[in-house]
Design brief:
The chain has about 290 residues and is of the alpha/beta class. The chain folds into two domains: about 130 residues, no CATH class; about 130 residues, no CATH class. It has nine helices and five strands, in the order H-H-H-E-E-E-H-E-E-H-H-H-H-H. A five-stranded mixed sheet has the order 2-1-3-5-4. Helix 5 crosses helix 6. The longest helix has about 40 residues.
């Protein structure tokens, strides 16, 4: 498994740019109004409706309901945040950050590579659960919807499954990432259909053969870009293609573990692999 992990890290870092923003920037330098932050947030959320129409996945309706009833817009302030209504039990804060916030105390959060991030911010009784969105890249409604659904799954875990807004330890965080990725991977599989499943099957077998020394070669992930663009595209930015590649590789490796490694704790192996893939996993969005 160490061989597979080392290979996967190399492919992600060299071929995809895992968790690194490299994409088309479409922000202007014009100051953004609170209403524009609301509109940008709703634009991201609209993708959830498109994902439901394409998949009929009932969990999307649960996440949409949670978003509509419990998401509170928070505006970035000077060393603080400004909720737009009173925070009640079961609520979470959602903040849209833009390039304008690069010069604010929120620069550190904006600089964090992920376009979507979820986790606790603050300490002690002042800890609040945030879902942070960033206006960095152009994505289609489907990609926005799936990424948003992934983060809302984390919100659901913190508020209703874990019932705790405190930061998780590394092992728990990695297991939670596996759970959320499994959900979002399945959405891509539903939307991508047989053509997507076909290339996932081939890639999973490629990983398994490499690990089992049946074949000493593995192809670069970039060769799948055109196939993914045909299945999900056309992409609205190079960053969107990279997101599809990331999801594709994670799906393929998870499937390789499921199909080719009997007698192991599959969830534990996936969590360990995810921790190796993402060294920042145990510190994500733990800033004040």
């Amino acid at each position: 498994m160490k061989k597979l992990i080392a290979l996967f890290i190399l492919i992600l870092l060299s071929g995809i740019g895992f968790f690194v923003y490299v994409g088309h920037t479409y922000e202007s330098q014009k100051p953004i109004t609170p209403q524009e932050r609301v509109d940008l947030t709703n634009d991201k959320a609209n993708g959830l409706n498109e994902v439901y129409l394409r998949t009929k996945n009932e969990e999307i309706l649960t996440l949409l309901k949670m978003f509509k009833e419990h998401a509170i817009l928070a505006l970035p302030g000077e060393n603080t945040f400004i909720p737009q209504r009173k925070i009640e039990t079961g609520d979470f804060l959602i903040m849209m950050l833009t390039r304008e916030d690069m010069m604010s105390p929120w620069k550190g959060v904006y600089d964090f590579p992920d376009v979507f991030s979820t986790g606790p911010i603050g300490e002690g009784e002042n800890t609040q659960l945030f879902l942070v969105l960033k206006k960095k890249e152009l994505f289609s409604d489907i990609t926005n919807g799936i990424l948003f659904a992934h983060e809302l799954e984390h919100v659901k875990f913190y508020l209703y499954l874990n019932k705790n807004t405190k930061p998780l330890d590394k092992d728990s965080l990695c297991r939670e990432e596996v759970r959320a990725h499994t959900f979002s991977n399945n959405l891509f599989l539903q939307i991508g259909g047989q053509e997507y499943q076909k290339i996932v099957d081939a890639r999973a077998k490629e990983y398994a053969d490499y690990f089992l020394n049946v074949d000493g070669k593995i192809s670069p992930s970039s060769q799948y870009s055109s196939k993914l663009n045909k299945i999900f595209g056309p992409p609205l930015s190079s960053g969107e293609t990279k997101r599809w590649l990331t999801a594709f590789e994670i799906t393929s490796v998870f499937q390789a573990i499921d199909n080719y490694y009997p007698g192991v704790d599959k969830d534990m192996e996936k969590a360990r692999l995810y921790c190796e893939m993402d060294p920042s996993a145990n510190s994500r969005i733990s800033r004040k």
